Structures
1.
Amino acid sequence: MAIIRTVLGDVKPAELGAILPHEHTVFSFLGAETDPGSSYDREEVIQRAAEELKIVKESHGISGIVDAAPMDLGRDTEFQAEVSRRSGVHIVASTGLFTESVGFPSYWRQRDVDALEDLFTKEITEGVVGTGIKCGVIKLATGPGFISPQPNTGGDSRITPREERAFRAAARAQKKLGVAIITHTEPPDWEATNIGAKQMDILEEEGADLSHCMIGHVSNTTNLAYLVELLKRGCNIAFDTIGLNWAFSDDVITGVVTGLVALGYESQILLSHDRYCMEIRRPSTEKDPSAYPPGVDPGYIHREIIPKLLKGGVSEKSIHQITVENPQRLLAF
């Protein structure tokens, strides 16, 4: 029987309603925990995050989120578990690794594909070291940096050898377990190439089930030819930067989604925000322009985007497919 693996245990897919497949509870870069200027009241942030998720569950029926932070983006599975308990919203934790330029701890940069495969597999089947809480998805990433304005100069592939190693390890773990793979991409990469196709090339070479892969941040491009190429290969795509201040406007994103639904691809589209609930482990002030903005609240898609899609001719049935059925299918294994 298929399950979705959450931080509080396995649940049946039908037990969940709407799911946001790419969000964050708490978020930080490697080393942020050592910043003496960081103000982080753990209990306060847990409570605020739980209250926020509880509100969107009651208002919009959102009953699950994927916390897309692997170990090198401040993943805190005990934090996630407590937020889930208090809010009543299911949370799926992520194994995997972020981009080499921003994450990918030195220890794991030195390990081979087999070691990474073993890491991903054990974090899903046995749990994260130190907490025992199991992950339910593999998160991968490629790119020159965290939403960097500069293009990658590392070569035509735009995927570093270490990032490729992580992709191959994830595909092999997925073949054994059936777990979903979700990815991060960046705007400069879409301007140069169909980076989603390059990610899928690696996964497919290793025998990954592309129907359980989600290419993320496709809202970073309006190139319909790129997106249709991905969809024809059978993967899922996520418009999952909705409402962030560097993303395309709501009208542009809803227009692209509406067009893809009209072409018959509603069974492969997902929507999310890629935002964290309340706070990261460092001060976020006007003097710190590099601080990642929290963006919109997790009810934004249901409050602002779905009405625009309905007005544009997307049916209620397709909305249910995109927000409920697609993420349930993606996450089930």
2.
Amino acid sequence: MRVFRAGGQYLEGREQRLWLALASVVGLSGAGIILMTQSPPLQWAGIAAALGALPLGIKTSHRLASVRKGRLGERLVTELLRRLPDDYWLVNDMVLGRTRGNIDHVLIGPCGVVVMETKRLAGRIRCWGDEWSVNGRSRGSVSKQVNAGASAVRYFLVEHYPGLRWVESIVVFTHPLCRLEVNHAKTVVVRYSELVQVILELAKKHRMAPATAARLAERLAASQTKGKRQSHSGVRRSGLAS
């Protein structure tokens, strides 16, 4: 398999911002502790600052742990897909159109075009249609998320390849302690160990020509480079205007 775009920038950026937020919370808590050693009313201000920083710190720490797990899951999937032959192309970490967040992986090859969302969650994961829960607690629909990404990829690629009728979507769970209960899912839901076999089965169904796969992967990768250049250009123009 050939990797057109290594990816990781989206979650890396989120992790850096969360580290900065956590540092700010720690600073606020430290300032509160210092004020608590002073005379009233500074003591009360210090207590308020320290107590206010506590829930913020817990929430930020949980988000940081989630992002770090996400980065690990994406790396695991990328390394797993490297087992595929060289007529497969992988474009990671994409942002297209108005999709919320990023698209973890787009695999193009004999399997056709496949959009994948990677999750690293432990425990009992239930999917019923588009409804999802983890350990009995409802969560945002992972199937809607991956299908929105698949729709965005198809919309972009059909301009260059009108014959593209369908983009497959897969949700991959990478945690070894996950237990999946899937009923009438609106996407393909697999464990990490099942992913390669599912891709090979899709290859029997689609049989996309290598030249077509390479061209579509190039288009997708180029769209991300172009978007980054436009973003940087916009920042420079904004700076000049100010």
3.
Amino acid sequence: MQYRKFIYFLIVSIFFSSTISGNRVPAKLKYDSVIVKTQKPSAVQEQEVFKKVDLGFAKTKESADIGAWERFLNWLAKLFFGKSGYEDRATMQTIFIWIFVVLGLILAIWLFSRSEFSAFLRGNVKTAEFNFEDIDEDISGIDFNKRIEHAKAEHDFRLAIRWLYLRQLFFLNEKAQISWQPYKTNMDYMNELSKSDFKTAFKDISKVYEYVWYGKYSITPTDFKAFEVQFRKFENEIGV
């Protein structure tokens, strides 16, 4: 019996000693020196692989996630660039923003050019067009009624309007509302009348004169009668 216990103890001791010795760390480690190389497929191979894969599920999810604006950008990107990736959509959106900015600037410039403030800033830019430098005589000695009637008899209603307008300037000068000078423009006289009660009425007859004379519009006798009434009304306002 004692003999069997000894043999059993001897076997167990040999097993544990071999196990411990097998788990010992070697004195010198050996490292793997093999160089790993990564390979990337060519673009052609990549396209061939993806052509064989059904990506319909991805397209369905993307279409569900984006709105009408993104779909519109996708359509434009495909139209101009042939593809509709994120960068392509961003480029199209930037282009749209710049288009809106430019159109907004054009609209703002157009509205400003039609404003009175724009006309004030221009000042005497168009002096040669709107003045009476071609009048080489003293307006106090001009028989305006005779000149107007002569132009009407010749059916030169544009010239008749010009004499009518010059007569209003003569009356305003006589009443010391403006200081008449042949080189002054309509805008100069408008500024001189800025604090008067008939500035608006003077602006209206100035428009008639500018449109008829410088716009070179052909007016009928009926048109002239309506304009003549407007000029007579202005004379009543300034007390002629």
